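HOLO CASE FILE
Compound: zinc ion
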Amino acid sequence: MKKCSSCSNQAIYFRINEGRYYCKRCFSKNIENRVKTTIRRFKMIEDGDKIAVGLSGGKDSSNTLYILKKIFEKNPKIEIVAITIDEGIKGYRDKTLKGCIDFCKHLGVEHHIVSFQQSLHTTIDKIAKELKEGSMCGPCGIFRRYLLNQKARELNANKIAVGHNLDDEAQSILMNVMKGDLLRLARFGGVPKVVDHKKFIPRIKPLLMIPEKESALYAMINGIPAYFDECPYANFNALRMETRDFLNKLEDRSPGIKYSIVKSGEKIASSIKHDFAGKEINVCERCEEPSSEKICRTCKTIEKYVYNSSYKSFKSRDKS
Ligand SMILES: [Zn+2]
Ligand SMILES: [Zn+2]
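Model generated. Tokens follow.
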């Protein structure tokens, strides 16, 4: 039986790129400290901030909420709330939604739910039924980001925390390099200051330096509810899946390579950021949400997918 490299309790994890063993307690402490370091390094959170955590019910977003709550519990100058988006997916979201409600109650975190039905007058189930084929992930992601931003602003939050982990970020960086998407590369991880608009709430990724499997282990050790059920409409982006497999293979052969990719992404971002600074962001003509084009992606998507579009009631819910 292996012993923890710090305290000689029974080890449950070996971090290969460090050559160190961890017991449950030292592992959890280490993850929390790394999140703290990431927050400090990228100046993600400052006194006076109100953070809205996008809580989906998966391990990463639940960990984000749990760890932020733990780190800032004793700081009265930082407020943390949670927002869950209900896409209207029967047999999937209704289950996870209940889990999110219970988890927030348990943590004593104010929880808000925004539904596609109420805000956009449609659901993913309805769109899927009408379309019969094609991936739902595109429109679903666009709507979720839109509503999360809108709700966070309504709650006067000045930052949105999302659960992206090291693997997600390394995949995105490689994919953006492959696609030559420099704007996305410039928006790297920490606090993306490239898009600057008073209606646009910046996103932070506190788990940026936590590998996927360590996030899963942290959730397990700390009894954090995490739903592994797959969305019934999950249609995996082929390029992302292949990039993920490729990165996992590389990581097996050269432990630590995901960190190096994320660090490279950070360097690239800081050297090309100025090329995109000052890029005009306007508001959408229809809904008045921030958009780089005349009509935002959400309005375009609504038009495309919801044939009997009910723009009038959807239009500018909050004119701030
Ligand atoms: Zn230990
Ligand atoms: Zn719009």
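CASE NOTES: The longest strand covers residues 79-86. Residues 32-268 form a domain with the Rossmann fold fold (CATH 3.40.50.620).
CLOSED: yes
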